[in-house]
Design goal:
single chain; alpha/beta; Rossmann fold; Helicase, Ruva Protein, domain 3; 2 domains; five-stranded parallel beta sheet; two-stranded antiparallel ribbon; 14 helices; about 45% helix
Length: about 325
């Protein structure tokens, strides 16, 4: 495995991430954009909300990414009776020793797949808030740091399905991205079916320590030009001024843009953010932060439609 501090970014980083994609694609067919979003989120120290119908391979995708990064992976199934302690852990009394002891929950991992988060009750959903924001959880009267890196990949069924709870706005805002997994094409579905006839072994490309080094390098070395930052702010502010929108994106969206676009530039072997980085990530960053007014939602207006209109109307910097 390559020592990150010896990497010449323009050549080797791009090659390493190409190798990473190749490893993941040994078992995952299609969903290139979703894979990119998850990797950008991981190296940005963010989280991803995945929306799709059941049976689209989200667990396999998450486990495959964990394998290529030597990260510990755990999965929690969202159900109406899921309790907070089922996620973060609990204190119990040991009768033999007469002491209180801690059972740490599945949240103590590198990659947590919270499957069907919107089937869990709101109180349980809120248990993730401290962990996602602070990378810490409180069990009893003690606070514990989570392993690093740490990312939540939460899946959500479309709200028109039965037995789901809408995610609170504060919860949604803590996800760096909302990525939508679409049905595969005919060719992709045939390849998926054929891939089940044999088993591929995945090889790690990075490890957790290297991920942390890369996160630090991205933060310190990738340049965000003032003109690009102004472009980002104008896009975010435009979400608050559309007649179709009841509530637009807040300042956390601007921060999300800064983090994610710098990471995308780095993964592509560049040390400066450009307009393409911003436009490519606008939809996953903003779609879960925009609330469309009911009268427009009834007419079929979606957050993605609003984002398209904003990108068409906000002038981009010239290079």
């Amino acid at each position: 495995m390559v020592e990150i501090d010896t990497i010449e970014r323009d050549r080797d980083i791009k090659a390493l991430f190409a190798q990473l994609y190749d490893e993941i694609h040994k078992v995952i067919i299609g969903v290139d954009e979703v894979i990119e979003h998850i990797l950008i989120a991981l190296f940005s120290n963010g989280h991803v909300l995945l929306e799709s119908v059941p049976g689209m391979g989200k667990t396999l995708l998450s486990k495959s990414i964990a394998s290529t990064l030597e990260c510990e992976f755990k999965r929690v199934q969202g159900t109406p009776d899921l309790k907070t302690t089922d996620i973060i852990g609990e204190v119990y009394y040991d009768k033999e020793t007469g002491e209180q002891k801690i059972i740490k929950g599945p949240i103590f991992t590198n990659i947590l797949l919270m499957d069907e988060l919107n089937r869990a009750p709101p109180k349980t959903q809120s248990a993730l808030l401290e962990a996602m924001e602070e990378r810490m959880v409180t069990i009893g009267d003690k606070t514990y740091s989570l392993p690093q890196p740490f990312i939540v990949l939460a899946t959500q069924n479309p709200l028109e399905q039965k037995g789901v709870f809408p995610l609170p706005e504060a919860q949604k805002d803590r996800f760096l991205f909302k990525s939508v997994i679409e049905y595969p094409t005919l060719e992709e579905e045939m390849m998926i079916a054929k891939s089940k006839l044999y088993e591929e072994k995945l090889h790690p490309v990075f490890n957790p320590a290297e991920i942390l080094i890369i996160q630090k390098d991205i933060k310190e070395s990738v340049i965000m030009p003032d003109s690009i930052l102004e472009y980002i702010v104008k896009i975010v502010q435009a979400t608050r001024n559309r007649r179709e929108v009841r509530a637009g994106a807040g300042p956390r969206a601007t921060i999300a843009f800064m983090m994610a676009t710098k990471t995308r530039a780095f993964l592509n072997g560049r040390n400066e953010v450009n307009v393409t980085d911003v436009r490519k990530l606008a939809h996953p960053i903003l779609r879960h932060r925009i609330v469309v007014s009911p009268e427009y939602a009834e007419m079929g207006t979606t957050p993605d439609y609003v984002i398209n209109k904003i990108l068409d109307s906000v002038e981009s910097p010239q290079y």
